[in-house]
Design goal:
The protein has 13 helices and no strands. By secondary structure, it is mainly α. The protein has 2 domains: 75 residues, no CATH class; 234 residues, MetI-like fold. α5 packs across α8, α7 packs across α11 and α8 crosses α10.
């Protein structure tokens, strides 16, 4: 319990720092987003209307410390402000439209890459120096070495533009109304195939290498030799003894891996015009939409911290020795 409380305190401190940076960084950037937004309509607006619009955008001229406390109050109320580029839509609503697609792509990619990566890593370590071990891990290392952006362009060109097997953009067909129907679900899955394939290929080598390396060291332990001496089946030793103990480092490193997965997904979503959080982030940067950028930054940070905290709890359940670490 003390371990969990200590980790919770650390993550709350990290969250406080992230929120503070979320407030400070946009105010250090050059340019005035309000001027860019108001310029096309400035001549047709009175001073009162301009001031009202600035307040709606959250562009206060109050002292910085007052702005900070107001910002923190709004954060805890779930108010992230109004998007500049999609005014007057609230940032929370804009993020909500992209969150479902990022969760679909990210969770699908994570589940598939973890399962396949761990299986290849386990088999590669179990059959060390076999043809499988010589070919498979290096092959996926080679594929994973390509930047996500470059790999996405290659897949898009071959399977989208040349072969016309899959749609080249968006998350679903515009001609099919969103509904829980076979036609709409089929459209979503068809649009998902290419970005999902790239995301899995980019991330597979992370799980393969981590599992294979730990599995090799576990196979040298005395309890594996004892299990073999008992005459237990190879399958039981491989999964029941070796893989079960080798999986812990992968679990503890999950939070670190999540950061690299998210960074790669931003590029993938941009290439395929997949309307997730990564696509929104790039669009927000181009439009100097500071509230939307800040909301996305904060949302991603909270997600990573939450996953790391859940991983810490899971590790104490898998291996109670972690509590005394």
């Amino acid at each position: 319990m003390i371990f969990i409380l200590r980790r919770l305190g650390f993550y709350l401190l990290a969250l406080f720092v992230a929120v503070t940076l979320d407030f400070v960084l946009p105010r250090l950037l050059p340019g005035d987003p309000a001027a860019a937004i108001l310029a096309p309509m400035g001549s047709r607006m009175t001073d009162v209307q301009i001031q009202a619009l600035r307040q709606a955008l959250g562009l206060s001229e109050a002292p910085l410390i007052q702005q900070y406390f107001t910002f923190m109050t709004h954060i805890f109320q779930g108010d992230l402000g109004v998007s500049y580029s999609q005014f007057p839509t609230p940032v929370v609503k804009v993020i909500g439209t992209g969150l479902k697609w990022t969760l679909l792509l990210g969770s699908s990619s994570l589940i598939i890459s973890v399962i396949i990566g761990h299986l290849i890593g386990i088999l590669g370590a179990w059959r060390r120096r076999s043809l499988f071990d010589i070919v498979m891990p290096p092959l996926f290392n080679f594929i994973g070495a390509f930047p996500a952006f470059f790999l996405s362009l290659g897949v898009l060109f071959v399977f989208g533009l040349k072969m016309h097997w899959f749609p080249i953009s968006h998350a679903a067909s515009d001609t099919i109304p969103p509904a829980f129907s076979a036609e709409y679900i089929g459209s979503v899955l068809k649009h998902l195939v290419m970005p999902l394939t790239v995301s899995v290929l980019v991330n597979l080598q992370i799980w393969i290498q981590s599992m294979r390396n730990v599995m090799i060291s576990v196979l040298a332990e005395d309890y594996i030799t004892m299990a073999e001496a008992k005459g237990l089946s190879q399958m039981r030793i491989m999964f029941g003894y070796a893989a079960r103990n080798a999986i812990l480092p992968s679990v503890t490193g999950f939070g670190i891996f999540l950061g690299s997965i998210l960074s790669g997904q931003v590029l993938i979503e941009q290439v395929f015009s997949y309307p997730g959080l990564g696509f929104l982030l790039v669009s927000a940067v181009g439009a100097r939409d500071y509230p939307l950028m800040g909301g996305l930054f904060l949302g991603i940070t909270v997600g990573v911290l939450l996953v790391n905290f859940l991983v810490d709890i899971l590790c104490t359940w898998i291996d109670p020795r972690v509590r005394s670490g």
